[in-house]
Amino acid sequence: MTATDSHDSIRAVLWQGDHLRLLDQRRLPFEETAIDCRSADEVAQAITDLVVRGAPAIGIAAAWGVVLAARRDPATLPAALERLRAARPTAVNLMWALDRMKRAIAAGADADALAAEAQAIQDEDLAANRHMGELGAAQFGDAPVGVLTHCNTGSLATAGYGTALGVIRAGYAQGRIARVYAGETRPWLQGARLTMWELTRDAIPATLIADSAAAHLMKSGAIDWVVVGADRIAANGDTANKIGTYQLAIAARHHGVRFMVVAPSSTVDLTTPSGEAIEIELRTATELLGYGGQRTVVDGAQAWNPVFDVTPAELIDVIVTERGVVEQPARRGMAGLYAADAA
Ligand code: MRU
Q1: Which of 67, 72, 137, 340 is most buried by its number of CB atoms within 10 A?
Q2: Same domain (yes/no): 306, 231
Q3: Mean pLDDT of 191-205
Q4: Inter-axis angle of helices 92-106 and 55-72, to 10 degrees?
Q5: Do 101 and 199 share a domain, yes or no?
Q6: Which pLDDT tens digit goes with each residue over 260-310?
Q7: Is 32 helix (H, G, I), strand (E, B) or coil?
Q8: DSSP assignment of 230-245, as one string?
Q9: What is the number of structural domains in the chain?
């Protein structure tokens, strides 16, 4: 077993031959339970409800949702594609995966061929993450660094290994990371509940911080890099990611801390010219007004709950994809990654 394998034991999305099994991320870290989806509708609902979350994992689950619709009745495919597409608005991996399945349908794929396509999407994501892990870890240099991450970008959010967390896994395995700090990621606590679970399972030294402690931590000198994932990267390098990422980028620039975004090319959307064009998901105020079913805010209070924000490209030092690394994306944009395809 390689160091990479030993740091990659979780699978959030599992095809079972005739249904899709999703690790229920609402219940982690204390309950490891799964839910089984037998229709595209059930998959779409699971995506909306955050049973499965994280941009690449959402796309993979949706692809399997298309397979479920094809197995049940190919006539339901157009409605299933529409329902799945509407499940969440910001992560473009969802639309990317559904467009890929749609092309396969247009080429005459039956349910078995669609299953092969969904499996390919899943396998390619895992391979991309492993490759990005190496590319991203090489950015750190030889002296062990302190890293801050946000939200959850690990095996739970992908086909496995993770994007930003994959870079952290690779960097730690190579001795390039001394300590990882994880922001708790209010209000859904992806950092506290999910990232700390993954890092602890892998015995990677990790310290949880309140999101509001990030600038204070950077000022202390403990952090060299902020490493985050993405839900959509626009053509100019502007990057949508979990709410709170933008303020981390501002604080990082102020303190001379470098800022890395790690995402597969399925997250890069050249048809979105800039962050202005990215729809930011607004979720129910209930997520902010209480926790674990327990109301924590006075009755009658209002709350605003955007769950993503956009970090402008000029605050990003490097974007790592499996196609290569874009340094200072504000200068070059993302199109260069695809230059070989156009040639
Ligand atoms: O609302 P979520 O949990 O789906 O948001 C997830 C994020 O913002 C992640 O940082 C992003 O999807 C990258 S996951 C590899």
Answers
A1: 67
A2: yes
A3: 97
A4: 30
A5: no
A6: 999 999 999 999 999 999 999 999 999 999 988 899 999 999 999 999 999
A7: coil
A8: -SEEETTS-EEEETTH
A9: 2
Smallest CA separation from ligand 1 atom 5, residue: 54
Is residue 53 domain-shared with residue 20, that is, in the same domain? yes
Residue 307 in contact with ligand 1 by CB distance below 6 A: yes
Residue 300 has which token pair?
A: 């009658």
Which of 223-257 are b and which e, b meaning 16 or more Cβ less than 10 Å from the residue's Cβ?
Answer: bbbbbbbbbbbbbbbbbbbbbbbbbbbebbbebeb
**How far is 185 from 307, CA to CA, in rounded Å?**
10
CA of 151 to the centre of ligand 1 (A): 6
* Cα 107 to ligand 1 centre (Å): 31
Domain boundary among 102, 127, 152: 127
User: What is the pTM assigned to this prediction?
Assistant: 0.96
Residue position matching structure tokens 């750190």: 140
Tokens of 84: 């799945």
280 DSSP 8-state letter: P
Taking the C-alpha atoms of residue 12 and residue 194, their distance in angstroms, rounded to an integer, is 12
In a shared domain, residues 112 and 146: no
Q: Are residues 121 and 240 in the same domain?
A: no
Instruction: Supply the Cα-derived Rg of the chain in whole angstroms.
Output: 19
Does residue 99 sit in the same domain as residue 170? no
Structural tokens at position 50: 């955050």
| Whether residues 107 and 141 fall in one domain | no
CATH number for position 228: 3.40.50.10470
Establish whether residue 229 lines the binding site of ligand 1, counting it when its CB lies within 6 angstroms of any ligand atom: yes
The residue whose CB lies within 8 Å of the most ligand 1 atoms, and thus the one to mutate among 92, 242, 311, is 242
- Residue where a domain stops, chosen among 99, 127, 155: 127
Tell me: do 173 and 198 sit in the same domain. Answer: yes
Range of 30's domain?
3-127
The pLDDT value given to residue 339: 82
Q: Is 190 in the pocket of ligand 1 (CB under 6 A)?
A: yes
Which residue type occupies 107? A
